[in-house]
């Protein structure tokens, strides 16, 4: 639903590296997200992948030639550059990097990069020795000074059978930077703290109390804040999710670990979003050895965990925004209002966990937003889209 890439004109400049095949996957992903991708290939890139590959994946013509027969062809670099919302150069070889750094314009890729006023991302890919060569190092430094965004290559074994820095980075490492470049930077200068996932409360070395939270909703909240320009810290309970690019993650296990981590950062944070499902109780003591089956009932005594959000509400400073979540299966509004008031929140997102395909674990969600003097029911949609809509509301509260 409503990807940040949908409807955007993205120019992808491909230069001559074996990694050219890898960006075919990027084009495919962008096309699935409904971006309008125009691929420019250098002459060398055509030695590795055929233009037809990119044409089939993007649904658009692949460009290479600066000099066409019609007037329109002669202006192709102007048109592509002018209409681009974002330009990506990947893989960027040492030669293309050198040309970009020095303003050379002898092919369609380099001329278009001089014309465009969109953000340009350069993703290097080359042999590790070439990447470490002082000339390349100097050119990359220059690129950054000029205003290009240079994204680091990955470390690993390369096609030349040498190990080092120089592998084209993976889509997962760069997608968020592209998404950010296409998003209004409404949270620039803001420090945001998001909590996500469950907590685990140990009973013994083998067992713990926990809940069904996957972390997906909280990670989507963190991702969306990063895209809007915030400096984001994510305090996460145990999940299998990868940390979103650009986000600083602090991993915790128990509610008390989460309490300590959140309280360490809360004073310096402008907006705190508590998406995590914190265990309200923990076993009163963690047994050193695995508790025998027939002793569990007698040994399992519970103790209450600290309510982190309630504590944050007590300490809330002027101008700080406090956002809570609630997972409810009945009387959503009444339960939500009670938590909003008790924990001194600015906004609470109440999940209806009685429905199918929303709440815990699901890719989708449906929430009711409650805030001072109002409410808003969000549609049933992906968690990422839900996060974007919640941030729209948070930003409007922040600007009041
Ligand atoms: O992780 P997913 O699988 O994507 O699922 C997302 C979610 C359903 C977990 C998430 O959207 C959600 O609803 N999170 C809140 C879960 C919950 O039950 O909250 P609660 O009603 O127990 O607590 C209300 C608020 O107080 C929450 O913001 C919670 O983080 C906070 N709290 C609760 C208890 C406690 N000891 N400390 C807290 O800070």
The whole-angstrom Rg is: 25 Å
What would the principal axes of the Cα set say about the shape? Answer: elongated
The CATH architecture name of the largest domain reads 3-Layer(aba) Sandwich
Indicate the CATH class of the largest domain: Alpha Beta
How many structural domains in the coordinates? 2
Give a list of the ligands: ligand PMT
Low-confidence stretches: none
Gap between N and C termini: 29 Å
Quick recap:
The chain has helices at residues 20-32, 51-58, 71-74, 76-83, 94-101, 108-115, 128-132, 134-146, 171-181, 216-227, 255-266, 296-299, 308-315, 332-342, 383-398, and strands at residues 9-14, 36-41, 62-63, 86-92, 119-124, 149-150, 154-157, 163-167, 191-196, 201-202, 208-209, 231-236, 248-251, 271-274, 281-283, 302-304, 321-328, 347-352, 364-365, 367-371, 374-377, 381-382. With 400 residues, the chain is α/β, with parallel strands linked by helices. The relative contact order is 0.09.
Walk me through what this model shows.
There is one protein chain. The protein is of the alpha/beta class and 400 residues long. It folds into 2 domains: 9-181, Flavin prenyltransferase-like (Rossmann fold), CATH 3.40.50; 191-280 and 301-398, 3-Layer(aba) Sandwich (Rossmann fold), CATH 3.40.50.10300. 35% of the residues lie in helices and 24% in strands. It is built from 15 helices and 22 strands. It has helices at residues 20-32, 51-58, 71-74, 76-83, 94-101, 108-115, 128-132, 134-146, 171-181, 216-227, 255-266, 296-299, 308-315, 332-342, 383-398, and strands at 9-14, 36-41, 62-63, 86-92, 119-124, 149-150, 154-157, 163-167, 191-196, 201-202, 208-209, 231-236, 248-251, 271-274, 281-283, 302-304, 321-328, 347-352, 364-365, 367-371, 374-377, 381-382. α2 (51-58) links the parallel β2 and β3 (62-63). It is elongated and about 80 Å long. The protein starts with 8 loop residues before the first strand and ends with a helix. Bound molecules: ligand PMT.
